[in-house]
Design a protein that fits this description.
This protein has 393 residues and is of the alpha/beta class. The chain contains 16 helices and 17 strands. The protein has 3 domains: 93 residues, Fumarate Reductase Iron-sulfur Protein, Chain B, domain 2 (Orthogonal Bundle), CATH 1.10.1060.10; 140 residues, FAD/NAD(P)-binding domain (3-Layer(bba) Sandwich), CATH 3.50.50.60; 128 residues, FAD/NAD(P)-binding domain. The strands form 5 sheets. Strands 5-4-3-6-17 form a 5-stranded parallel beta sheet, sandwiched between helices. Bound molecules: flavin-adenine dinucleotide and iron/sulfur cluster.
Length: 393
């Protein structure tokens, strides 16, 4: 391993304006970390990874737009410096750790001119949603010395658990939980709109990190006969399966299902070039033997005897712009049809606030426009907790 690390770190040009750093929304100081590893200062290097998801990022960050593919050497000869391997090594063997000196002194008082002030008072923080955004902000707030309660309706990192094991082994998820769970009090509870209002009254700051909490419908008659993608990702389907959608979720569903099902087909309403999934995942999906049918939009789903009949209309699309649905239709027959057309942030959770959101409520991650793990972490790291002091002293 050490030899591999030496090889990787020797390859780096230690650029003055590193393109790898520009590609990382988390802002990892990649050349600096590589330099520390080159000097065998592993612990110091690991401490530069300022969040607990290093290994996770090294596996799930989009390969076509990450530090390695943006490296100046990748632009030259196609092989960028393999920082994800270094990141995984540091995170696995040296771990995201917290030292006593990292923690601030709190609730001490200073008296000046007869006036006593509390320095850095401990604040009460509520985090709603235990995904990458929620866990990162909870850890950050704990490190800033505050008391954090995290509310989660399923299990911690439930969205990451949907990523198939061959892309993100479950041990990576348990490791993140193991190393961070002492940073917050965990409450396994669904937060309703009214409870959210109460939290903003009872806590100094509330971070809403509920992700894309609602699945899009197919919007066709017979919709209820379709299997939702989260079910297809957790219970392997068999027989003949059609997956409707063209994003990562659809591709993950199809590749995973192919391990057991006799035949798996993806039906997507645009061309293959317009599929929003990562190119690498599409490649593996095709290699697994999944058939990809493009420019087909679902029209209706019916049960005929024991089978599902999915009618699709042919479409014409360009460059993710206009989509024209034609009158030409085909019908595909299957045992299961999976609805994997994505999910969105359902704002019902904000409905009890009326027109104005309270100033101590901050949205982070997928529910704030993100769509990747690294964006959720970056938003949480960038959010400015110094505001808390200004809000409620
Ligand atoms: C199948 C699949 C594959 C993916 N592949 C990749 C990939 O390869 N690379 C990548 O970067 N990203 C990928 N993503 C996207 C990635 O998982 C998300 O971008 C990321 O998890 C967003 O983090 P978050 O913290 O904002 O939200 P989430 O991780 O979605 O976490 C939100 C949490 O809030 C909880 N919650 C929701 N509502 C409430 C409520 N009312 N009360 C209490 N808790 C609530 C949920 O249960 C959930 O645990 C994938 C997603 C899926 C589904
Ligand atoms: S762009 Fe590549 S060569 Fe330049 S600092 Fe980053 S990893 Fe090193």
């Amino acid at each position: 391993m050490i030899e591999l690390l030496q090889e990787i770190t020797s390859k780096c040009l230690y650029c003055a304006k590193p393109k790898c750093v520009a590609a990382c929304p988390i802002g990892n100081n990649i050349p600096h970390i590589l330099q520390l590893v080159k000097n065998k200062q592993f612990f110091a290097a690991a401490r530069e990874l300022v969040h607990p998801f290093g290994s996770v990022c090294s596996l799930v960050c989009p390969q076509h737009a990450n530090c390695q593919s943006s490296c100046v050497l990748a632009l030259k000869d196609g092989a960028g410096v393999d920082f994800p391997v270094v990141e995984r090594y540091l995170d696995t063997y040296w771990k995201f750790t917290i030292r006593r000196e990292d923690l601030p002194d709190q609730n001490q008082t200073v008296t000046q001119n007869g006036q006593t002030t509390v320095i850095n008072p401990i604040k009460k923080i509520a985090v709603v949603g235990g995904g990458p955004a929620g866990i990162t902000i909870a850890t950050k707030m704990h490190l800033a010395g505050h008391k954090v309660v995290l509310f989660e309706r399923n299990s911690l990192l439930s969205t990451l658990r949907l990523i198939p094991d061959y892309r993100l082994p479950p041990s990576y998820i348990s490791e993140v939980i193991k190393r961070t769970e002492f940073c917050f009090e965990y409450v396994n509870r669904n937060v309703t709109p009214q409870l959210l209002v109460d939290l903003t009254k009872r806590y100094d700051m509330v971070y809403l990190c509920v992700g894309k909490n609602k699945m899009y419908n197919l919007g066709i008659p017979g919709e209820e006969l379709a299997t939702p993608y989260d079910q297809a990702l957790t219970e392997l389907l068999d027989g003949e399966v059609i997956v409707v959608g063209g994003g990562n979720t659809a591709v993950d569903c199809a590749t995973l299902t192919k391990a057991r099902a006799q035949k798996v087909t993806i039906a997507y309403r645009r061309s293959v070039q317009e599929m929003p999934c990562f190119p690498r995942e599409l490649y593996y999906c095709q290699r697994a033997g999944v058939e990809i049918l493009n420019n087909l939009a679902p029209v209706k789903l019916e049960k005929v005897d024991d089978k599902l009949h999915l009618t699709l209309a042919k479409t014409v699309s360009e460059n993710r712009g206009k989509l024209t649905v034609t009158d030409e239709q085909i019908t595909l027959v299957a045992d299961h049809v999976v609805s994997a057309v994505g999910s969105y942030f359902d704002k019902t959770i904000l409905s009890a606030f009326g027109d104005t959101l309270p100033t101590n409520l901050v949205l982070l991650g997928d529910c704030n426009g993100g769509s990747l793990v690294r964006e959720a972490i970056a938003q949480a790291l960038a959010s400015d907790h110094t505001r808390i002091g200004a809000l409620r002293n």
